[in-house]
Amino acid sequence: MTMGLFVGEPAASPWPLADGAFLLRGFALPHEAALREDLGSVIEQAPLRHMVTPGGFRMSVAMSCCGALGWVSDQRGYRYDPIDPERGLPWPPMPASFVQFAREAAAQSGFDHFVPDACLINRYEPGARLSLHQDRDERDFSHPIVSVSLGLPAVFLFGGTRRTDKAQRVPLAHGDAVVWGGSARLRHHGVLPVKEGQHPFMGACRINLTFRKAG
Ligand code: MD3
Ligand code: FE
Fold first, then answer.
1. Which one of 94, 98, 158, 174 is CB 3.0 to 4.6 Å from 67, fit for a cystine?
2. What is the CA(2)–ligand 1 centre distance, in A?
3. 98/94 Cα distance (integer angstroms)
4. Could you tell me if the CB of 145 is within 6 A of ligand 1?
5. For the segment 155-200, what is each residue's pLDDT rounded down to a tens digit?
């Protein structure tokens, strides 16, 4: 028998990856068309770009943001900023479909009333990767981070609180959502180089959205 999600079928229940971290396989599939359409208009306004790390390296992942705050990396460091430095304008507002999706995913995982003020958009072309890091530029780590994967699959690395802790490998596919809260919130994480491929809707790339309460 073929397994899959059908229109109107409720998504699978959250799978506890770790204390505070929940994997919701296929949770974004019913939201996919709206997310994809609104993503298109966000990156039309604020194009994807390769930021530079404070150490001077160009990131292989191309990024953009929407919402009241966006994440910025340059020679001065990492920070959240209400202004897109490429355009000298505020980041595009967060589409209602994004806010609704993040809120539902968080609620499914036991985090009620999650209201994101920043959405980071990461685009991986084949070969792009994200080395192990912690997300600590947000003001209050008691808020979870909600992530969703679209397009090509990837292997996510889920490490520990120390950078040298052994990392667990979690394959993530189109439509998978993960909610990272509690003691998982400050664990190191990264993404292995994305393999070549073609996704029927997204082409030869993986897009990851992360929803945060940054300010
Ligand atoms: C675990 N993005 O944008 S999303 C990032 O697939 C980032 O683009 C990855 O790491 C990506 O900062 C991973 C999953 C994720 C996001 C935040 C986390 C996992 C996390 C924060 C704490 C622990
Ligand atoms: Fe991260």
1. 94
2. 31
3. 7
4. yes
5. 999 999 999 999 999 999 999 999 999 999 999 999 999 999 999 9
CA 140 – CA 99 distance, rounded (Å)? 19
The pLDDT score that the predictor gives to residue 1 is: 47
Q: Which of 63, 171, 66 is nearest to 74 (CA)?
A: 63
Which residue's CA lies nearest to atom 17 of ligand 1? 145
Q: Within 10 Å of residue 26's Cβ, how many Cβ atoms? A: 18
Closest by CA to 185, choosing from 125, 114, 83, 128, is 114
Q: Could you give all domains of the chain from N- to C-terminal order, each with its CATH number?
A: 8-34+95-212 (2.60.120.590)
3-state secondary structure 100-142: HHHHHHHHHCCCCCCCCCEEEEEEECCCCCEEEECCCCCCCCC
Q: Which tokens in the block code for residue 28?
A: 């974004």
* Ligand nearest, relative to CA of residue 170: 1
